[in-house]
Amino acid sequence: MVFFCGKPDRGDDMSLQEIKNRIARAEQAANRPDGSVKLIAVSKVQPNERVEAVLEQGHRIFGENRVQEAAGKWPAFMERYDGVELHLIGPLQTNKARQAMELVHAIHSVDRPKLATTLARLAQELGRCPDLFIQVNTGEEDQKAGIMPAEADGFIAECRALDLPVQGLMCIPPVEEEPALHFALLAKIAARNGLSGLSMGMSGDFESAIALGATHVRVGSAIFGDRVKAAG
Ligand SMILES: *Cc1c(COP(=O)(O)O)cnc(C)c1O
Asked: How far is CA 69 from CA 64, 72, 178, 206, 212, in A?
């Protein structure tokens, strides 16, 4: 028996619509066009029934942290639901890169030269490549993935020289800090490099991310309810 301890107003059938409404209001408040923000429903570690409920409500854009987990549950969903778009938002090991590229529509965690060269080689081999976001470690945290802010411009140039389809940047702000500072820093690095995509904002801070230009928000628990176990 598994017990969930989600708040009663989270993870029910209204949650998806409520988040969509809040995104629409945040777009308006920031004078941004309707629909300019993509909602990635982060389904990692969630029971299949909850994921299915969100698919049944018509949502098609999902995020997963781990290639293994994504490969275990999404092929079956994709057979049953058309138009699923899967985003890998967690760290990617080079030995899982091929599997990831065959499965997902976008990778948000390109964070080091070795991974970039591997993706470039595989893109040649496969004849296609998912949309890519470069993860920036805006808080310069030891335990967190991402290229350091001071190295971001060089790394973006390196990825472009490899012909990788870099759409934008991604960050996960440190838990103890004001996320807006990190969103602003990410937006600044993107702007000076001519990148339009900004993958930033989670359940607790997506409205602030939208105010600062997020194009992709990654929302998990506010849609599905609390995760039973924290995923990396
Ligand atoms: C889990 C996760 C999210 C979603 O977090 P919530 O707080 O549940 O919305 C977003 N981005 C990344 C990279 C994650 O690992």
From this structure: 8, 5, 31, 25, 31
